[in-house]
Structure formats: C-alpha cells, structure tokens
C-alpha cells in the first residue's frame, strides 16, 4: 500500500486525497460526446437509441419494438436455484429496511397557533427510470437495491433500463429479469446506457418518459444523468467509481481487515480504497496479509486491487481515533467500515458526520451490505456524502405541505403579513388582507 502520515502531510497532499468530483470521472471529450448523443436522442428518438446501441454496444436490435423486453422474456428468465434463493433473501432484507424507513415518514400535522394547523402529506413520485449496468457483467443486486425502494414507496410506473448482453442477439441478463419478475416490474428496456437514459428523460415512441432517473454506471452513464438535469429531469447524486475507507486500530484483526479492504478494491482500476489506522505495526501486518491474498486473486481483480490501494488509495497513519474521524469527514467515503466494536467504535460513529454508510465491527464486511443486509448499496461518491444519502424509499417520495387557518388565526397573523409584504413591495399580498371582507 501507498503510505501517508496525515499529521505531517501538507494541505496540497491532503487535497489530492479528499478533493474529487465530476471532473475526476469524465473528461471534456467524453462530456461533449455524451451531450451530442443526448441531443440526438431528443431529436430522433428511437432511431438514435437503436443507432447508439448498435454503435457502442455492438448489438443490432433491428427495430424499435425490441427496445422493450417482452412479457414472455421476463416470464421465461431463469437462474440457478441457489441464485434464485439468494435474490429472494436479499430482496426480503431490502424490503423490510425500506418499509421501516417508510413507516417513519408518514403524514403529520400540528397546531402552529390557535386556529391554524400545518403539516405534510407524503406521496410517491409518478414515474422513475432505474439504470442497471450490464453488458460485460451481471449485477442483479443493483436492480433490487434500486427497485425495491421504489416499489415500497409506491411509485406508479417503474422502468428498468439494462444494456443488452454483448456479442448476442440483444438478450438481457436473466438475473435482472428474475428480479423484475419477483417485484412485478414489467417495463424493462434494453439499450445503450447513455442513449437509454436520454430516452427515459425525453420519452420516445417505444420508451415512456419518466420524471426521475437513478442508477450507477460508467462515466458516460453518469454524465448522461447530469446532462438530463439540464432538461428538467431529476437525478440523484453522482455515482462514480467505487470508494471505501476502513478504520482500524491495534485491536483489529489484521487478516480480516485485509480481506475486507479487498472487497471494494477489486471493483476496478479507478476504485479508491484507504486504510486509516492509528497504529503503524497494525498497518504493516495488514499490508503483509494483503500481499498474500492478492496473490490468490484473478489477474484482472489483482490489477484493480493494486491500483485501488496503490496510486488511488493506500494507508493513512493518524495519531488518534479523533484524527481518523477527521480524515473520514474530509474524505466523505461512499463505504466506511470501523474494524472494531464497543465503546471506542461508538465514540467514532458519533464523530463521523460524512459517509454513505458506516459498517461497525469485523463481522460487518462491505459485501454483506452490498448484497443482503438491507441498507442502501447505491451510495454517494466523490465527496457527495457530505450533502446526500444513499438510495432508499426516501429517493422516491415527495412531501406536500398542507395548512389550514380560520378567521381568528388570519386576523392575528395579518399585521405580520402586511408588514412583510409592504417591506418587500408586494402590493397585492397586503391588499388581500387589508381589503378582505369581514365575515
């Protein structure tokens, strides 16, 4: 691992670690290409989506009718029994987590003063598009981590967008279709990612428009979602390359810490993984285990881990756990694990304000949260954990304020209203009170 002593590192060095954003995910050339593609979909609809899928994914769907995955394809999708059971187990956990979140966000009202009540009504958004990465690999976990919260929220129309499998006839990952079937989702579309996202935003003859689009993907997928904001489509936080941080101390088991560091490190050569520790010998021990475990990994995963823990990440030595919390808050990691439990872990949790998730103890590895624990796995990256949260049922709900006042309450508030209206120069605001007929 790359090594850094935080106390002696200058501000410039620290900024290279903590400062990252959209400019680190996409370059200007890619941005221009995606903007052109989005504009093309807006102008030509299905034809542009078909052309992009043929050009970038190598799949000729033939006609626009094949952009929609048929009910028969969804019904026929099969996976191995063990995977089927695992999907059902994971969906159950995610569903129960989100039902608990929903139960805490019901309608409410209060008497703000005699004769006046205020409150909120909570309701689901009408439609959402969920992007599930695919093509080169199978990610059914992304499908249920996004779709279950939308189902629990009660979204009226849920559309899944999935790139077709490579070098084939346009077939879609059967594991994703099994998830769709389990959740009763019938609007499933196959298309190139950025073009499909644009189609979901604008609407085409074959792909109905939605009001919100979420889901992780390639840099091109990320910039397509950001670009659609310009066209009035709601999206979530930036979901860039995977990043994680593990905070260890002398009480941590170095072997398990090394294993857990590799979970997110194997995602890709653009991933970032940091070990933060207040004990140099523990860092040495973890590094030794890392070297051994990396030797057992397939070459493509080993290369990713070397990059994630080397040029992109590494080990940060801090002088105390308070220093570890400061590093975590500056970095605002997507995934954070505290590799010990008890009172010291609780103190650390209290001090950490910016993280997509906090996993406590060495029996709570990143992979458990990614797949089955139930907490959100689509989490903010690139420092966006400072201002946003993971995708839960909250992402698919909106709140409408409701207020009611009687004549007595309005009379009591009238001086405040007219004074502020006069100050801000809004004549009708005050006239509506001053000229109001008495009951």
CATH topology of the largest domain: Rossmann fold
Radius of gyration: 25 Å
- Residues in β-strands, percent: 15-25%
Largest sheet: 6 strands, parallel
C-alpha end-to-end distance: 78 Å
Topology:
Blueprint lengths: L2 E3 L5 H8 L9 H17 L1 H12 L13 H6 L4 H23 L4 E6 L2 E9 L2 E5 L8 H14 L3 E6 L11 H10 L3 E4 L2 H10 L9 E3 L4 H11 L4 E2 L7 E6 L5 H12 L6 E6 L2 H15 L4 H11 L4 E4 L3 H11 L3 E4 L4 H9 L6 E3 L5 H6 L25 E9 L1 H18 L2 H8 L5
Parallel strand pairs: 1-11, 4-5, 4-7, 5-6, 7-8, 9-10, 9-12, 10-11, 12-13
Antiparallel strand pairs: 2-3, 3-14
Helix pairs in contact: 2-3, 2-8, 2-9, 3-8, 5-6, 5-7, 6-7, 8-9, 10-11, 13-14, 16-17
What does this 3D model show about the protein?
With 439 residues, this protein is α/β, with parallel strands linked by helices. The chain folds into 3 domains: 3-21 and 240-386, Rossmann fold, CATH 3.40.50.1980; 45-107 and 122-235, Nitrogenase molybdenum iron protein domain (Rossmann fold); 413-439, no CATH class. Helix content is 46%, strand content 16%. The chain contains 17 helices and 14 strands. The strands form 3 sheets. A 6-stranded parallel β-sheet has the order 1-11-10-9-12-13, with helices on both faces. It has a 5-stranded parallel β-sheet with strand order 6-5-4-7-8, sandwiched between helices. Helix 6 links the parallel strand 4 and strand 5 (157-162). Helix 6 (140-153) packs parallel to helix 7 and helix 8 packs parallel to helix 9. The longest helix has 23 residues, at 81-103. It starts with a strand and ends in a 5-residue tail after the last helix. The model has no long low-confidence stretch (mean pLDDT 93).
